[in-house]
Amino acid sequence: MKDISDFTRRDFLSLSAALTGGAGLVFTSTPFVASFKPSARALALGSPIEVDISKVEPGAMIKVEWRGRAVMVLHRTEEMLTKLSIVDSLLADPDSQQSEQPTYVDSNHRSIKPEILVVEAVCTHLGCVPIPRFDVGPSDLGSEWPGGFYCPCHGSKFDLAGRVYSGVPAPTNLKVPPYSFIDNNILVVGSEEGLV
Ligand code: FES
């Protein structure tokens, strides 16, 4: 015959397990729900940002942060622009048919104004940060290297328009974010409401 004290102990243990599970659910679900509430900082990070490019000389590049990601703004020289067509045959997607970019940028030089390139500094392979390598013919990239961007993680190469070379791990060109200009000196990353 069942001992009433055993029964009570077993029930107590079952109840404890249920409560513990319930408490676990509360503790795990609360941060989950909370994660859907964007913080003020997150909202701020999603807002368009104005960038003064008046002091970015031809050949120079700056980095800005938009939505928590680095965005590279390169002022291309005439010589840099000339190099774009030279490497076309070496690229995986020279006309940016498979790559993410707004419809209003030119498919080849990938920008609104030819001289101002705006691309995200996020490699399309696994998300490392490509570094600018504007030096021509360096020993580590070969004498044919005309300048561009290089991802140090697995060796992906991109040209001076962020277009990816064939035969590297990255599948597509660097992404061009939405952007526009308020005037000749002020670029707005994240908004298409200015002059495009
Ligand atoms: S993350 Fe850039 S090559 Fe792999």
What is the strand and helix layout of this fold?
Blueprint: H1 4-34, H2 40-46, E1 49-52, E2 61-66, E3 69-75, H3 78-86, E4 116-120, E5 131-133, E6 148-150, E7 157-158, E8 179-181, E9 186-189
Antiparallel strand pairs: 1-9, 2-3, 3-4, 5-6, 6-7, 8-9
Explain what you see.
- There is one protein chain.
- With 196 residues, this protein is of the alpha+beta class.
- It folds into two domains: 1-37; 43-189, 3-layer Sandwich (Rieske Iron-sulfur Protein), CATH 2.102.10.
- The chain is 24% helix and 19% strand.
- The strands form three sheets. It has a three-stranded antiparallel sheet with strand order 1-9-8, with no helix packed on it. It has a three-stranded antiparallel sheet with strand order 2-3-4, with no helix packed on it. A three-stranded antiparallel sheet has the order 5-6-7, with no helix packed on it.
- It is globular.
Tally of discrete structural domains: 2
Using the coordinates shown, work out and report the CATH topology of the largest domain: Rieske Iron-sulfur Protein
* Count, helices: 3
Structural class: alpha+beta
Shape: globular
- Evaluate the radius of gyration: 26 Å
Helices and strands, in order, run as HHEEEHEEEEEE
Task: Indicate the CATH architecture of the largest domain.
Answer: 3-layer Sandwich
Percentage of residues in DSSP E strands: 15-25%
Average pLDDT metric: 83
Q: State the distance separating the first and last CA atoms.
A: 86 Å
